[in-house]
Predict the structure of Rid family detoxifying hydrolase.
Amino acid sequence: MKQIINTPNAPAPIGPYNQAVLIGNTLYTSGQIALDPKTMDLVMDSIEAETKQVMDNLKAVLATADMTFEHVVKTSIFISDMHNFAKINAVYATYFNEDTAPARETVEVANLPKFVNVEISMIAVKA
């Protein structure tokens, strides 16, 4: 049965979707951008600050489903400029143990919602 996951500790959806859907032991998160959940303002001071906000938003969604980054099996990273890849990757890497890091793809796209620089979604499984 499908369970909707939403938390005030991550940005409220800005369209007809939820922050995540839990089916059985598998959590599918919507893509998160760098919206501060308290103010709904974008955190765009630097690509590092933007990426940290995205990851913190995902951490809050995972926590609401009683999961952590250790449960993540797949991530999708969408970036507006591949030249930012190394900086995004450096922040992203601080949230995972390299030995158990999830599978992932990183794709450069023409535009993202609200013209942000990075959006990340995840699939997590509680085994």
Residues 75 and 122 are 4 Å apart (CA to CA).
